[in-house]
Amino acid sequence: MLQFYEPEKDYGTPASTATETVTLTIDGVDVTVPAGTSVMRAAAEAGIKVPKLCATDSLEAFGSCRVCLVEIEGVKGYPASCTTPVSEGMTVRTQSDYLGDLRRNVMELYISDHPLDCLTCPTNGDCELQDTAGELGLREVRYGYEGANHLAVEKDTSNPYFTFDPSKCIVCSRCVRACEEVQGTFALTIDGRGFESKVSAGQAQSFMDSECVSCGACVDACPTATLAENSIIEAGIPEHSVVTTCAYCGVGCAFRAELRGNTVVRMTPYKDGKANEGHACVKGRFAFGYATHKDRITEPMIRDSIDDPWKVVSWEEAIAHTAARFRAIQDQHGRNSIGAISSSRCTNEEVYLIQKLVRSGFGNNNVDTCARVCHSPTGYGLKTTLGESAGTQTFASVAKADVIIVMGSNPTEAHPVFGSRLKKRLREGAKLIVIDPRGIELVDSPHIQANHHLAVNPGSNVAILNALAHVIVTEGLQDEAFIRARCDNGQLEKWMAFIRDPRHSPEQNEADTGVPAAQVRAAARLYAEAGNGAIYYGLGVTEHSQGSTAVMGIANLAMLTGNLGREGVGVNPLRGQNNVQGSCDMGSFPHELPGYRHLSDSTTRRMFEREWNVRLDPEPGMRIPNMFDAAVDGDFKGLYCQGEDVAQSDPNTQHIEAALSSLECLVVQDIFLNETAKYAHVFLPGASFLEKNGTFTNAERRISPVRRVMPPLSGKEDWEVTVDLANAMGCPMDYHHPSQVMDEIARLTPTFHGVSYDKLDAQGSIQWPCNEAAPEGTPTMHVDQFVRGEGYFALTEYVATDERANRRFPMLLTTGRILSQYNVGAQTRRTDNTAWHPEDVLEIHPHDAEERGIADGDWVGITSRVGDTVLHAQISSRVKPGVVYTTFHHPVSGANVITTDNSDWATNCPEYKVTAVEVAKVSQPSAWQARQKQFDRRQHQLLEEATDA
Amino acid sequence: MAPKQIDHLIKMANQIALNTGAHTDIADSARRTGEHLRKFWTPAMREQLGEYCASGGEGLEPVVEQVLREMSP
Ligand code: SF4
Ligand code: SF4
Ligand code: SF4
Ligand code: FES
User: Fold this and answer.
1) If you average pLDDT over residues A25-36, what whole number do you get?
2) Which residue among A212, A220, A538, A751 has the highest number of C-beta atoms inside a 10 angstrom radius?
3) Pairing of strands A301-302, A682-685
4) Ligand 4 pocket residue status of A53, Cβ below 6 Å
5) Across chain A, what does the average pLDDT equal?
6) By the 8 A CB rule, do A706 and A694 touch?
7) Which candidate, A630, A629, A627, places its Cα nearest to that of A644?
8) Number of Cβ within a 10 Å radius of residue B11
9) Residues of chain A with pLDDT > 70: what percent?
10) Cα→Cα distances B11→A427, A542, A910, B52, Å
11) Measuring CA to CA, how many Å separate A103 from each of A55, A95, A99, A565?
């Protein structure tokens, strides 16, 4: 998939989705295209290029530049081909002397007001104005260059990633339309008229001061160098490109990594990428510089104690040392005293190998993944009700939804490219119900207004879901035919009796949920009576003591209203990290083998035993919190942690620190010395997603290729390290490429039987299940029947969390993310994205702030039952009184010093979203923060001593 | 001080019982709690809680006690 650099083909206008076709003749060639296609696109599909400036196929045609004029038999004048739809039998001419003159006239006007510095222009060779002038054979500019022009206008360099140079602007408005149509932010306008017209961000502000979210869609759309990436301005245009997949969030955008030699100079969202269709966000598009950051550690290191300096060693020594330490621990403390944690940041092949190493090499099932702390309740809840631990739709399905529920999720910040799709559908008129304690952007943003915002009290999700179901059932709004035909009727009766009980009515629940009953009733009716109702949810649903119950409540609602099994509907978990879906699919949980098959299933176990040539332990192993508890108690001594920063991301930091400190051998494989690595005895340098081959699976079950675009800085891709460790521990692994790992997965996993790297190359991506029954994959699940056969209405009793507010801790803290930073921030904090979010702050309602004498920007101490930390306050009415909110992207914030050990009853997913706290004005950082700073300094010193040695 | 494993096990087992209807359908809750412990807990965790139950079991939901007694060899 290595290609010489060439911009992706631009058809000028978007593809038509019509099914009927139309045949016409263009320059004597017969062309058949879907009805509604523009003449320009039809020509492009036939290989005929019509010049264009204001048109591009990511945007609706606008018809302003007039260089695309054509002649159409029987039509007067010279219509613009971008705005003219094809019709049956039409005869079009795209070239004639007269058309040439007309087009050149237009071009002359543009060029007379354009700086003629093509040779030194940053996008020389990648500029549509330059190309079009060439195509039209422009040889002179009769107007001269001396008239009024815009050549002296100042550049806007406020954005760290791109520059706006208005002197080169041809006012085609592609940027303005990209910001509106593709991104949905409406940050740009064309100010003024005629010669005076110009592109302007916000209220005549700089890009940085405007509402711009730096998605880069305008930069992509700009045909000239007016909006250009700084990396291109500095390095020049790329010379080759490789298609790969973003390693940040669960949207899984496809990108063309564009390079000069081994240096990535631009990440361009790939138009053929089905998850993103050519769009991206500030992280994926711009924040790739961390991969070559000076903090990268590229050599293996070992030490006996965390108070010792690191010793740089060879790969051979590091691997042999680790294997010997792990075996010695097992000899002394038993087979179950070691385990591994893998990460959803890793590829499918990497996490598959980790669980294989644990089950067949360590000889136990102590393997878990960070999905434990985010979407494990999704796995449990959806498996129980529908039969498969996965979202039911494609992202594109949202374009057919009529009523959309967004619950405990903030797509415009956390899943921005999906957020843009969603906003587009809302602008087209779909209705929106937001269930969230906080007023997220979707509640009220340009051209979008939620029909209902149910501002639930943190911790009351199950109560509100039950109330919604109660209204639907008691008002007779359920899809009786669907539930009778498709669900387990016996269980349905039981559930009906349960949910009808008046204790679930919105009126009786009001005290728990904090939402007026009338609003709940109205929202329930809106969803139940939608043609297509779709539910999207995130960690605000799962990260609760009843996370699994809430997921089941969501599935119940969808079944009840018949909103499953077709486009435009469904239950859609929005996954946090890039490969949450994949890492769960790959058997990373301690109780199940790849494909969600429980270890107690002896047929499956035997299949793996034969393939791996070992005996497998049929009993479940430890989950992450069990490992930490056992470590504190002295029963768990060795941990292999790949790509996951548990010390920062897991709850109750002081407990985690105690656990990590009691390990005899902690092995961390990562690209940076993360917080966990500061407690490690072995550091194995990892590879970034740009340095390895593999696959990621996004939130729509889409398996997409990750391709190596530059050599690994440490000399090894991560999967190779696991293979070496396995072999050193006497667990033979003989792979030479991750495609062989995928072949093994496909052999052993029914939902993956049809997956291979060859098919991925051919199709671009595959949505599992992909097997004999669905050779090209499965965009929509549960079409004719549920994976479990009959849908199961689980009883969802509301059990209030122990984490309740009281006199000592009167407020509830909830947590979330912001657009520019990613999780623990190890990557994004090492890029210019810090320009948007230099620190985590505490959002507090004006009323609560006033009561406590807190002003905006004050230091405030936040104390919970387990710890305390200090942050700057931000007064905000996005949160309701009694609720405070923060993000967790910076280690020094210590957000998890205050979160507790409470967890989901079924999966132990931590209850990050509810912590009872008190907030008070303070004058200095907390004792933990002071200790953390000192520890951090000491560990960096130990690292420096090693590097110097 | 870091909390001990047993405190977490007690709390987790109680939560499972409460979420499977310990206060509405005791028999069903006992069945589902037992199934849950077998499917998701390590044998060592089950044993540890079983021993705690045998030695008094303070703080355990009655359903959990019932399950653990049935489970013990
Ligand atoms: S970067 Fe994105 S949000 Fe900012 S102006 Fe351009 S299109 Fe709009
Ligand atoms: S900045 Fe670029 S895209 Fe926007 S109007 Fe100017 S030339 Fe067109
Ligand atoms: S972070 Fe998510 S939305 Fe942004 S580019 Fe990457 S995959 Fe796409
Ligand atoms: S490309 Fe058709 S009018 Fe500009």
Assistant:
1) 96
2) A538
3) antiparallel
4) yes
5) 92
6) yes
7) A627
8) 18
9) 98
10) 47, 19, 13, 13
11) 15, 10, 6, 51
Instruction: List the domain boundaries for chain B.
Output: 3-71
Instruction: Give contacts of A336 with chain B, Cβ < 8 Å.
Output: 42, 44
A820/A858: higher pLDDT: A858
Q: Give the distance from CA A424 to its chain's centroid.
A: 18
Give me the pLDDT at residue A112, please. 80
Bridge partners, A706 (sequence order): A694
CB atoms within 10 A of CB A47: 9
> A654 vs B2: CB contact, 8 Å cut-off?
yes
For ligand 4, pick from A52, A102, A128 the residue to mutate: most ligand atoms within 8 Å of CB: A52
Q: What is the amino acid identity at position A936?
A: D
Give me the amino acid identity at A212. C
By the 10 Å C-beta count (0-12 exposed, 13-18 middle, 19+ buried), A60 is classed as middle
Q: Residue B4's pLDDT band (boundaries 50, 70, 90)?
A: confident
Round to whole Å and give the CA distance between A620 and A105. Answer: 75
- Please tell me whether the interface predicted TM-score (ipTM) of this complex is above 0.90: yes
Asked if A545 and A911 touch (Cβ cutoff 8 Å), the reply is yes
Q: What residue type is assigned to position A342 of the chain?
A: S
Residue numbers in A near B11 (CB within 8 A): 802
Q: Which amino acid residue places its CA nearest to atom 8 of ligand 1?
A: A179
Which pLDDT score is estimated for B2? 44
Q: Is the shortest distance between the CB of A819 and ligand 3 below 6 Å?
A: no
Task: Look at residue A949 in the predicted model and tell me its pLDDT.
Answer: 52
Tracing tokens 């990396």 back to the chain, one arrives at A231
Give the pair of three-digit tokens for residue A156. Answer: 């806007």
What pLDDT does residue B1 have? 41
pLDDT at A301: 96
Residue nearest to atom 3 of ligand 4 (CA): A63
Is residue B31 less than 8 Å (CB to CB) from chain A? no
**Contact criterion met (CB below 8 Å) for A389 and A594:** no
- Cβ of residue B3 closer than 8 Å to a chain A Cβ: yes
